[in-house]
Design a protein that fits this description.
This is Translation elongation factor EFTu-like domain-containing protein. It is built from six helices and 16 strands. It is an alpha+beta fold and 277 residues long.
């Protein structure tokens, strides 16, 4: 199911550790060690005996995939020589960079399980935009993945830059809405705080306020090099509620408030039935 969703060969780097249906940690298939988490703190443990066969199975799958990224590694693997941890990591970097496979990891953000390993994986194996010298010279493209409402700023669009750089004071093309947008002040987001910055480069995430026609799911680029992406697919709502304004004056206010909520949360749908919504 996961490989069908990603249309890619998914390579597990870990196996989940569970007890009584509770997610406790993972077995690291690279370093061949277990990690359990208590209140967000990790400690190493031995691999449970009942998981040894499953660990061997997925470790073999990992080594085969890594070996196929390099002729030297495949030769060493076929001669049944043990690959070092450094060689495994190099093969993973090469395979992920070339899109040969997609790494599969396990974790829980709410329980703070495996998040440290996820971040280590991003740092150790994912390609860095800094390695691409021409990244900032490419035509800019950015994807708006969320919209927030700020008390003093109004609408705040969060975006990720995929190529080039997005700079304050420039005009870009919204290829989704087919209209131009003037980029105002750009921010780096640090939790609830914002830091002004003149531009955001490829690979980074930023925020921009007061765009007139841009919302979640839109693509910002240039008219000369328009880029389009498939629209976001949202699930259909399964819960509904009827709202009725107290009077005609309240109807307009309620409509404006609901419109703002839909921009922040695209999962919401508003339907009008007579004077009720």
């Amino acid at each position: 199911g996961i490989e069908k969703e990603f249309s890619s060969f998914c390579l597990p780097l870990q196996i989940p550790l569970t007890s009584d249906k509770s997610f406790l940690g993972v077995v690291d298939l690279i370093g061949m060690r277990g990690k359990v988490y208590e209140e967000g703190k990790a400690k190493e443990v031995k691999i449970p005996k009942d998981l040894e066969e499953e660990v061997k199975k997925f470790r073999k799958k990992l080594l085969e995939a890594v070996a196929e990224t390099d002729d030297t590694l495949i030769e060493k693997y076929l001669e049944r020589e043990e690959l070092t941890e450094a060689e495994i990591k190099k093969g993973l970097r090469d395979g992920i960079s070339s899109h040969t496979f997609t790494p599969l990891l396990f974790g829980s953000a709410t329980k703070n399980v495996g998040i440290d390993l996820l971040l280590d994986t991003v740092v150790d194996f994912f390609p860095s935009p800094q390695l691409k010298e021409s990244a900032e010279k490419e035509s800019p493209s950015a994807f708006v993945f969320q919209t927030l409402l700020e008390a003093h700023l109004g609408e705040l669009n969060l975006f990720k830059v995929f190529s080039g750089a997005l700079s304050s004071g420039t005009t870009v093309y919204n290829s989704t809405k087919r209209t131009d947008e003037k980029i105002g002040q750009i921010y780096l987001m640090q939790g609830n705080s914002r830091e002004e910055t003149p531009r955001i480069v490829a690979g980074d995430i930023g925020a921009v306020a007061k765009l007139k026609n841009t919302g979640t799911g839109d693509v910002l680029c240039t008219r000369e090099n328009p880029i389009t992406l498939p629209p976001l697919q949202f699930p259909e709502p399964n819960t509904s509620i009827a709202l009725k304004p107290k009077g005609e004056k309240d109807e307009k206010k309620m409509g404006m408030a609901l419109a703002k909520l839909v921009k922040v949360d695209p999962l919401l749908k508003i339907e009008m039935e007579g004077r009720n919504s």
